[in-house]
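Write out the 3D structure for:
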Amino acid sequence: MSNLLKSWVTSANSADTDFPLNNLPYGVYSIGEGDAHCGVAIGDMILDVTAAEEAGILTPSEVAVFDVPFWNDFMDLGRDVWAAFRVELTEALAEGSPKQAALEPLLMAQSDATLHMPFAVAEYTDFYAGMQHAKNMGSILRGSPDLPANWLHIPIGYNGRASTVVVSGADIHRPLGQTKAPDAEMPSFGPCKRLDIELEMGAIVGTGSTMGQPITVDQADAMIFGYVLLNDWSARDIQGWEYQPLGPFQGKAFGTTISPWIVTTTALENFRTSSPPREKELLPYLNEGKPGLYDVNLEVTMQPEGAATATTITRTNYSRMYYSAAQQLCHHAVCGCEMTTGDLLGSGTISGPTKDEFGSLLELSWAGREPFTLDTGEIRTFIEDGDTLTLKGHAQGKGFRIGFGECHGKILPAVNNPFE
């Protein structure tokens, strides 16, 4: 395990910062009414890499890649360029760097910045790859924790909506939709009553594959540019009525929130950890050459509107997953599906073996049958209007942490029903 790397940016040398020199996550920001620029988080500051590229101080490519407000053009350059730029950036921000004087004017305070989507999402696929979550869902919905016959053999997923992936801080309206009570003859239409979160990690595909050409798990691992926190907002009552026989649709399509900083796979390299023991042997194409999961501590807080403090409602770890992002990406492409730069893969809900590690409110309240109490004294089973849900995560190093920043969203009331 490496030690804290020292930077001339003083705030980056704290053991408590999410963004030490060891991290250097990538994002997009603006100040006031200014244009959105690509930036790198370092301590409590942001380095304007768009301006640094324009000035010739940082040059990842002969062609400008940071003149657009997203990291896709840089991602498309491939793994060798990613590695070389990270070395250049680390040296430029390290203690004693000769580039300090040139870069100091390009530092912006994070507190003054508005953060935007860090990349343009090409496609979004969400998986169902956490064993404890899958067993809990079976117990709640079918009365048995038994897994579907295929679950132990393939990473199960569905195609989501890239159009409604938003950055942390964006408000989410309670969705309208069709639901049906168990004792009702006909479904009804109106606002979702069982609004939920799903605590996930999102893997970002940096380089694509060719249509018709499968990829190995090791190739998939090399294609992944980095990770974000991901909240797959879920309308459980809408989902429960629609999901047979083709799976999630409108109950998942109204919003997915990601954290604003892309933490690179290189920054997480020392935190790789093995997958849990297999109950059944995987087919050879899904076997990993090296561990594909990461030791990332995760938590979720809930804060009602007007409350002074937030309540931590769950804590767990990304290592609880049964399938890694590399295995998910490999399986996604094995049929010949073309993967592209900017594809986003949701891990699936991350839940541990005990209730304080469950990654959704459906599990925490056991489908509403076991309400829980917030620190404010308020009772919850699902999300109410005005509630803010926040995901946090970090990998803990020796005297430093690799943090993701916050992934939060506030629930607003449903829009006026235009069909009444």
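The CA atoms of residues 214 and 335 lie 7 Å apart.
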